[in-house]
Amino acid sequence: MLPGPDAILAAVKASSKKALLAELAGRAATLYQLDERRLFDRLLERERLGSTGIGGGIAIPHGRMAPLGKPCGVFARLAHSVDFDSIDERPVDVVFLLMAPEGAGADHLKALARVSRLLRDRSLVDKLRATDSADALFALLVEPMQAQSAA
Q1: Is 62 an annotated catalytic residue?
Q2: pTM attached to this predicted model
Q3: 72: which strand partners?
Q4: Tens-digit pLDDT profile for the chain (151 aa)?
Q5: Which residue is catalytic, options 17, 27, 42, 62?
């Protein structure tokens, strides 16, 4: 789901939810050869349906994009939290952008559940917040994801 440390943004300095989504869309477009504007628009459309801020300073923006072959993502830890209209009204500083193929109904939901489970682990999230290195963040995220896949 995360191809490597290049899918990690370690200290994003976004000033707003929209700026954050634009930065995530830019990185995802580069990594996965996607149309950046189209992805950004998809993310904004999804946010208009309801915030993907799940509480506890965490958000999981997500969308579907036709050219993708499987679910993929970009992780960001923000230098300063931003308002994300989260369900608990707390600002967000940990974000996992999840994208799935256009027709991936069940696979998209499974990937979303997997990321949600991962980010519900308080000790993991504390470690993510305390880490500034993209390589270290990648290692922290990939280890539990691989364990979930093996289960």
Answers
A1: yes
A2: 0.93
A3: 99
A4: 888 999 999 999 999 999 999 999 999 999 999 999 999 999 999 999 999 999 999 999 998 888 888 999 999 999 999 999 999 999 999 999 999 998 877 888 898 999 999 999 999 999 999 998 999 999 999 987 666 555 5
A5: 62
DSSP string, the chain: ---SGGGEEEEE--SSHHHHHHHHHHHHHHHHT--HHHHHHHHHHHHHHS--EEETTEE--EEEETT-SS-EEEEEEEEEEE----TT---EEEEEEEEEETT-HHHHHHHHHHHHHHHT-HHHHHHHHT---HHHHHHHHHHHHHHHHH-
* Cβ(125)–Cβ(119) below 8 Å: yes
- Which one is the CATH code of 5-150: 3.30.70.580, 3.40.930.10, 3.40.50.700, 3.40.50.1220? 3.40.930.10
